[in-house]
Amino acid sequence: MSLEEIARGMMQFLDRLDRMVPARRERSSKTRPSKPAAGFTRYRDPRGRFELSYPAEWVLEESQGLQIRSPVMGSFAWVDFVPPGAHAWELLDSSLKPLGGNLQKTRSLPGPPEKAWGVLELGGRRFRWSGIVRGGVLLLLGNVVDPKRGSTLERYEERIVAAIRGSFKEAGAPRGSRSP
Fold first, then answer.
1. For residue 4, is pLDDT > 50?
2. 165 alpha carbon, distance to own chain's centre
3. Is the pLDDT of residue 151 over 60?
4. pLDDT at 96
5. Contacts of 107 (CB under 8 A, 6+ apart)
6. pTM of the model
7. 139 burial via Cβ count (<10 Å: 0-12, 13-18, 19+)
């Protein structure tokens, strides 16, 4: 596949994302896609606790929560469950420590839902992340931080993560409620 074909495919995918995730100034709290965008796959938790859509070519693993990651980019989505009243970000950081990971929270908003943003260091890589905890369901989304990458690729990754975030729905969440 040539670079031109890859670039064209990327632009087509961005166009599909544009239709699924309206610009922030146009987005209302009632905007929520009813079905996955073209090229996305819907995942529903077998126990009915949440659902989300993700790019069909991403890898899904159901161990230690639900992990979805791009096979070519440094983007990921991770869903796990925390006990009610638990300090989710501290719990997550302590579970990453044995793996050599470090979760730094740079900003947070109390909940419900509780929201946070920060930097994750794991496996010699740094990721920007955002997360939400509602009803014991934790959603963590991230992109690799790499100064050698261009802004076009970063915008592309951000739009994919925004589409996943926009499709995320916890069981029992009020209709029209939004994730981070």
1. no
2. 5
3. yes
4. 82
5. 116, 117, 118
6. 0.70
7. buried
**178: three-class secondary structure by DSSP:** coil
Q: 66, 63, 37, 38: which is closest to 51 by C-alpha?
A: 66
User: Per residue in 24-71, pLDDT tens?
Assistant: 333 333 444 445 556 899 999 998 889 999 999 999 998 778 999 998
Number of alpha helices (DSSP H) and beta strands (DSSP E) in the chain:
3, 10
The answer to whether 176 and 32 have CB atoms below 8 angstroms apart is yes
- The 8-class DSSP code of residue 58 comes to S
* Residue tagged 């915008």 (tokens): 155
Q: How many CB atoms lie within 10 A of CB 14?
A: 14
Instruction: Name the more confident of 171 and 159.
Output: 159
3-state SS of 79-124 is: EEECCCCCCHHHHHHHHHHHHCCEEEEEEEECCCCEEEEEEEEECC
- DSSP E strands in 21-82: the ranges are 40-44, 50-55, 59-62, 66-69, 75-81
